[in-house]
Design a protein that fits this description.
The complex is a heterotrimer of chains A (364), B (283) and C (324). By secondary structure, chain A is an alpha+beta fold. Chain A has two domains: 220 residues, P-loop containing nucleotide triphosphate hydrolases (Rossmann fold), CATH 3.40.50; 126 residues, Nucleic acid-binding proteins (OB fold (Dihydrolipoamide Acetyltransferase, E2P)), CATH 2.40.50. Chain A has ten helices and 19 strands. The N and C termini of chain A lie far apart (53 Å). With 283 residues, chain B is mainly alpha-helical. Chain B has a domain of 168 residues: MetI-like fold, CATH 1.10.3720.10. The chains are: A alpha+beta (364), B mainly alpha (283), C mainly alpha (324). Chains in contact: A-B, A-C, B-C. Chains A and B meet through strand 6 and helix 2 of A and helix 10 and helix 11 of B.
């Protein structure tokens, strides 16, 4: 259980700034997910923490000790790679023993620890196999066993579920979380999949183009995104973002209802704003319906997506031009030039005007 | 003009057979000659490809008992072994260093290394002759042991470079985080995984040291220290008399096994060049 | 996840013994890398770079086998003397002709061979063994084999030609019963070219094959769908894709052939007279057999510009495309 701190960590490859001065502190024992599109620098960050690369500037601090200049083997960090990186020329047992050998653990203790780690992950029967003869899920367990067999101060996971099939992935997610609860070791988990990040993390750190855009609990990122990037990145489908003058107005697809449905819903008494939507397409996805449309006029044909609640489904047809209503408290405003979140609608007069100018405030 | 698939298959095998024949014809001819009796061989009217008189082992016997061929074989073998050891000691670490520790240029130095291999001995043999004489090694097998690695080390480094590059980086990084130093990773992960490459190197280093003619002919003149390549062409000709059958037997005995071994390693060699493939070719 | 209790033990288990392995030089990639590379580099520098400069020094001195030390500086005298000899132009001409002719033939045969070896087929392993034999066989031994193949009395090729009536009195190829391959100027050069092509075809094919097998199948499938015939595919798709490696193979061959003396030394011996000498062989004759080390070095150095040009071209091609 340790606190990982990253101070002003930067990494430049020639002119290319892969990482631009990141500051980050984990909480003890937390499961922190780091997420972002490819090229955002999350892998670089992870490799710097592990010691596989040296930073251009900044420090990595683990448990109060500055480890920036230490080689990987001295950092007491265990890493699980995307490809699992099992040693092909060794049996599973030898794979698990490898870190113990490196630290001069006596043979008898090695055997005990291997048995324990294999038992913890349910792979005792695989100890004599070679990695080539393991399935994806089995390989992952061996990689995990290899990581937990010594008690590291920090786990780093590099997209460990991306090579698994979808069904196995959900199960593996649950098992990973359980492992974390039991071991209590601070874990940093890197992924490009925001669903996974939000589902797994105690806190989520969103990265883009080498910078940390926001860090916080999944709920916080979802409901109070700090900028347009986080707003559009977190959540599936992403937040609708409409440009209007100097502002970008955002709302979640499930917060927009056809006017008629709003009247019947529990948000009926709230202050709300209406948008006129040309419905272009309706998609049935089993568990939900999505309506795709565009908003004319001042929003210049901006595309929107609305998640239709059950009661609303019958009210909308392709080709309709309907008012969709969003309660004001669910609107989020962003500055157009910086993309950063600005003050909420309730206290911002210009924002109010911008909206009402187009479609008129509606009090239900 | 559309070519039907039957015609295509026939054309394929015909072309292959022609080229194969072109490649192997001399060797076939060597083997046949080796077993021919004198009176059969030295009759211009006889079909050279048939045994008009029964084949004989006398030529081979002659080769091994009445000539210095066994001495040449032993010298070549001894030189080969020592050169292999020297080559491995120099080339294996060098290749790993270039593949993993010398950055982008190291990784892509494959073609440059191969060029060093291609520097012709004829450019350097005269000054090397001076150096070798100066060191007192002239006319001994040690002169060749000293110089052959200039051929084998670049070639083997080039070959091993592609092997080391093909080891997944993550496996080595896992070993680093697991607690080994870079040196530890080299010995415990990289070397075992490059074993096929190292085997290939041993074979090629040995074969390359067998193949050279110019250094062997220039640096060594006394029979007792000659290699197969230098000894066979010069010593099996006594005055004006060429002992052709023995000559052919000697060439076949050395050449054909080498061809078989090289042929089995054909794919490794292709791989050695594949790493250099520029990205633009991969659509 | 089973065994809650055992997993809970992780929290309570003692940490692994400290202190951690002391870190030192073995961890520093830069240092380790240099140390691992150094011996090979030092060796190559000592036995390749140094001799090269020594060759230059020799060529501007008057060293001989009898007196090999470099005492006097004679400027370009060796080069001028060498260029005045009539053998010089012949050797130069021959080096160029042999190299060019080998290249042309080699290119055609390489393309054919690579097309044949591009895909698996039954017996491919056996074919590979046959094809690689010319390169695998030590050059000197192969030369001896060809020496016998082209013998002036007993050549089996002549026998075949006689049997089909192309050789012998009153036939197309002349009244004699044999073609004196190695005793005539142009036949001799031709023979050298054939032997060279024979010897270098395997390596050339291997290099180009490395590129051929990397051409994605989709390109060919698309072409088949578009209805392209065999030769159109060859010229429009295969050859352009192979362009670089083919050039690399050709340039490598230039390096090998231009600098080779083994074949000439053992077959035509430069004869008749010195009409089939090539530069490297002449260097050998002058320097070692003739004893004039400095002159031999001077002749050998004429090789250098061509080799350098070829090497630079290869490097530029390979690395320019790498950046792309």
């Amino acid at each position: 259980m340790a606190v990982l701190e990253v101070r002003g960590l930067a990494k430049h490859f020639g002119d290319f700034k892969a990482l631009k001065g990141i500051d980050l502190t984990t909480r003890e024992g937390e499961f922190l997910t780091i997420v972002g599109p490819s090229g955002c620098g999350k892998t670089t960050l992870m490799r710097l923490i592990a010691g596989l690369e040296t930073p251009t500037a900044g420090d990595v601090v683990l448990d109060g000790k500055v480890i920036t200049s230490l080689p990987p083997r001295a950092r007491n960090i265990a890493m699980v790679f995307q490809s699992y990186a099992l040693y092909p020329h060794m049996s599973v047992a030898d794979n698990i023993a490898f870190p113990l050998k490196a630290r001069g653990v006596p043979r008898s203790e090695q055997a005990q620890l291997i048995r324990w780690a294999a038992g913890a992950l349910g792979i005792e029967n695989l100890l004599h196999r070679r990695p080539a003869r393991l399935s994806g899920g089995e390989k992952q367990k061996v990689a995990l066993a290899r990581a937990i067999v010594r008690k590291p101060a920090l786990f780093i996971f590099d997209e460990p579920l991306s090579s698994l099939d979808a069904q196995v992935r959900a199960l593996a997610r649950a098992e990973l979380r359980q492992l974390h609860e039991r071991t209590g070791v601070t874990t940093v988990y890197v992924t490009h999949d925001q669903i996974e990040a939000v589902g797994l993390g105690d806190r989520v750190a969103v990265m883009q183009a080498g910078a940390l855009r926001q860090i916080g609990a999944p709920q916080e990122l979802y409901n109070e995104p700090a900028n347009t990037f986080v707003a559009g990145f977190i959540g599936t489908p992403p937040m609708n973002l409409l440009t209007r003058g100097d502002l970008i107005i955002g709302f979640r697809p499930e917060d927009a209802l056809p006017r008629a449905a709003m009247a019947k819903s529990k948000d009926a008494s709230q202050e709300a704003v209406a948008f006129q939507v040309n419905v272009a397409r309706i998609e049935f996805l089993g568990s939900e319906w999505l309506a795709y449309g565009s908003i004319d006029g001042a929003f210049e044909n901006a595309r929107v997506l609305c998640r239709l609640r059950q009661e609303a489904v019958g009210m909308v047809k392709v080709g309709d031009v309907q008012d969709f209503v969003v309660s004001s408290s669910r609107l989020r405003f962003f500055d157009r030039t910086t993309g950063l979140r600005t003050v909420p609608a309730a206290t911002c007069a210009p924002a109010q005007e911008a909206v009402s100018e187009v479609n008129g405030k509606v009090r239900m | 003009m559309r070519i039907t698939s039957v015609a295509r298959t026939i054309g394929f095998y015909v072309a292959l057979a022609l080229l194969g024949l072109f490649a192997v014809f001399p060797a076939l001819w060597m083997v046949i000659t080796a077993f021919k009796q004198n009176s059969d061989l030295y009759d211009p009217n006889n079909n050279p490809f048939l045994f008009n008189l029964p084949p004989t082992l006398s030529n081979i016997e002659f080769l091994f008992t009445q000539t210095n061929f066994p001495v040449f074989l032993w010298n070549s073998f001894f030189i080969g072994i020592v050169v292999v050891v020297v080559t491995l000691v120099l080339a294996v670490p060098a290749a790993y260093s270039l593949a993993r520790l010398m950055g982008h240029w190291g990784e892509h130095s494959s073609i440059a290394i191969f060029l060093v291999y291609l520097i012709p001995p004829t450019l350097l043999f005269i000054p090397l002759y001076e150096i070798v004489t100066f060191l007192g090694a002239a006319d001994t097998v040690w002169s060749l042991i000293l110089v052959y690695p200039t051929i084998t080390v670049p070639f083997c480094t080039w070959l091993l470079l592609s092997f080391f590059r093909s080891i997944p980086r993550e496996v080595e990084e896992a070993a680093l985080t697991d607690g080994w130093s870079r040196v530890g990773v080299f010995f415990r992960v990289a070397l075992p995984l490059a074993a096929p490459g190292i085997t290939t190197c041993i074979v090629f280093a040995f074969a390359l040291s067998l193949s050279d003619y110019i250094y062997a002919a220039v640096f060594v003149s006394s029979t007792a220290s000659r290699t197969v390549s230098a000894g066979v062409p010069t010593e099996l000709i006594r005055g004006d008399i060429y002992y052709w059958q023995a000559l052919m037997a000697a060439t076949a005995i050395v050449g054909i096994p080498l061809a078989v071994i090289y042929g089995l390693l054909f794919d490794w060699l292709v791989r050695g060049f594949q790493v250099e493939l520029p990205r633009s070719l991969r659509a | 996840m089973k065994n809650d209790k055992t997993l809970g033990a992780v929290r309570k288990r003692k940490a692994l013994p400290k202190p951690y392995p002391p870190t030192g030089i073995a961890d520093r990639d830069g240092v380790v890398g240099t140390l691992m590379l150094a011996p090979a580099v030092l060796y190559v520098v000592a036995l390749v770079a140094v001799p090269f400069f020594l060759a230059i020094a020799l060529s501007v001195s008057d060293a001989t086998v009898g007196d090999p030390a470099i005492h006097h500086f004679v400027g370009l005298a060796n080069f001028i003397d060498v260029m005045r000899e009539s053998a010089f132009l012949l050797a130069l001409r021959n080096s160029v002709i042999v190299t060019l002719a080998t290249l042309v033939l080699l290119t055609v045969l390489t393309i054919i061979l690579v097309e044949l070896l591009a895909r698996p087929f039954p017996g491919k392993r056996f074919a590979e063994i046959l094809i690689i034999l010319p390169w695998a066989m030590p050059a000197a031994l192969a030369a001896v084999g060809w020496l016998w193949l082209l013998d002036s009395e007993f050549s089996p090729i002549d026998w075949v030609l006689r049997s089909v009536g192309l050789l012998g009195p009153g036939t197309a190829l002349g009244p004699a019963n044999n073609l004196y391959y190695l005793g005539r100027e142009w036949l001799g050069l031709g023979a050298i070219v054939v032997i060279n092509v024979w010897r270098t075809l395997p390596l050339s094919a291997i290099i180009v094959l490395a590129g051929r097998t990397a051409i994605p199948n989709e390109l060919f499938e698309q072409a088949a769908l578009d209805g392209a015939g065999y030769f159109r595919v060859l010229f429009r798709i295969t050859l352009p894709a192979l362009g670089i490696l083919l050039t690399v193979a050709i340039l490598f061959t230039v390096l090998v052939i231009f600098g080779d003396m083994t074949v000439v030394a053992l077959t035509t011996r430069g004869g008749p007279g010195y009409t089939t000498e090539v530069l490297p062989y002449w260097a050998y004759l002058k320097g070692i057999q003739g004893g004039a080390l400095s002159q031999g070095a001077a002749v050998a150095l004429f090789l250098f510009p061509v080799l350098l040009a070829a090497s630079i071209l290869v490097l530029r091609m390979a690395y320019r495309r790498e950046e792309a």
